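Continuing the series of single-chain predictions for the mutant panel. This is the parent chain; the variants come on the following pages.
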Amino acid sequence: MRQRMVNEQLRGRDITNKATLEAMSVIPREVFVPLSQRPFAYEDRPLPIGEGQTISQPYMVAFMTQALRLKPTDRVLEIGTGSGYQAAVLAHIADTVFTVEIVPSLANKASRILRELNLENVQVRIGDGYFGWKEKAPFDAIIVTAGAESIPPVLVEQLAEDGIMIIPLGPHRGVRQLIRLTKSKGRIKTRSLMEVRFVPFVRN
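Parent structure:
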């Protein structure tokens, strides 16, 4: 089922990055969803994981990962750990992943699953993702997996020179634009990649 997902939902569309395809081929998505949702783990849609949150559609996970243009030496910050699946995919490609989740129950569960998968290059923190993870900055890549109404300036500060940030941006509960932000010589450039729907960015 996982290989069919990769071949039909990812290769069959516009996912061409080898590292992304390999990570999606290896990481078992089913372990990141509740038992009741496991029969649907490789379907082309998001699934509920509790606490009003979802695990993103496989294609969206792959698209956002590919858009980061990750290198094996990269340090990545993820805002919104959720199930932990996106962090696991990133950890298969990058050197280190730091992921922040505001809901303690989700953070603790994701941390346990990531440990069980022996993904020792992921660190999970409970907290408000708006403030990033200053002690671990700068980051070569930042991925925000919840919809925001504006780009948190703190995250831009924590992005390294020539770094890339991916963030869903737009009105609350509306259609958002998936934005790729690049930082070079102190200048910020943004590009809209596609229209998306994401659960809202939750803050304390």
